[in-house]
Amino acid sequence: MRRRTLLQLVGGAAAARPFAASAQSYPSKALSIVVPYPAGGPTDTLTRILAEAMQRVLGQSVLVENVTGASGAVGVTKVARAAPDGYTLSVGHAGSHITIWAIQPGSFDLLSDMAPVAMFAVNPMFISARKSLEPANLSDLIAWLKANPDKATMGGALGTIGHMASLDLRQRTGVSFQFVPYRGGAPAMQDLLSGQIDLLIDQAANSLPQLNAGKIKAYAVTADKRLAMAPEIPTTDEAGLPGFHVSVWHAIWVPRATPIAVIERLNAAVREALASASLQKRFADLGQDIPEAERQTVRAIAAFQKAEVERLGAAFEGGESQVGIANVRRSRVIARSGRARRRPPSRRGGCPV
Q1: What is the rounded CA–CA span in Å between residue 326 and residue 311?
Q2: Angle at CA 298, nearest 5°, toward 331 and 17?
Q3: Who has greater pLDDT, 71 or 335?
């Protein structure tokens, strides 16, 4: 089999793809974007805003379908197995498309089964707690967790950036707590609101409405600058945890064999949607940053994806969990070599979370 770089596969090797549809005739019917998390969560909310804007650009309906289970693997695998015609899209982030390999190995192979289209949102996270939790600030929280080992509960979806951030918090500070897995951010937030769990590291899009309503408290934002929509919340640097910077990016993928002309048409639609003033305001209200223009291209997301596979693979190898490490290590080898070996997606699914 010929060895081809990842960037060639997604950025310039049109001759290597079957030209099943032309950019001129596409799209001729409704599109479906599969969200691998429950309705109402941050990924779902952002996708629906983007889909509405893309619908105006493409002149076709853009439907949003929530396919949950196995920490996102069920929904992503559905798209990996779909016809590569540009009508079934996958949306997600590092947790649903990269670190999931270490939690649900065998469900799909990002570099062999999927082609990236565009990045469309980036935002930091909040270290949040139920309103009645005793500690008043982040330093107090860390001291309290140390004094009460394994007493507190931290929610999150397995394999997500929030999950990895919680592991990083534990390793950096020496605290201990019980991790409670969820299918996505929405059910985790519901349990935080009801007091079923104590802590949650989650995206601003999911946390801001509850924070503004006074239903939860936030100890810090995981960035080097305060969030414009919540200027009263200190950064982790200011709150006593310097360098603890975590952000979540969202992107769109299609099945690997989708024609490059269709991928470029979808990328152009995303970029035009992101230029909409109404979308920009709605994203800003959710604490979302829109990537700079140079980061919105097909070539840019391909290069970024490759770097994220390497970075997160290293994080998993250095972390506590050894589940599926061989799978993550394999992905890092592919990323380094630029080789994406085509294989039929596995029929094996992961256990529900």
Answers
A1: 15
A2: 75
A3: 71
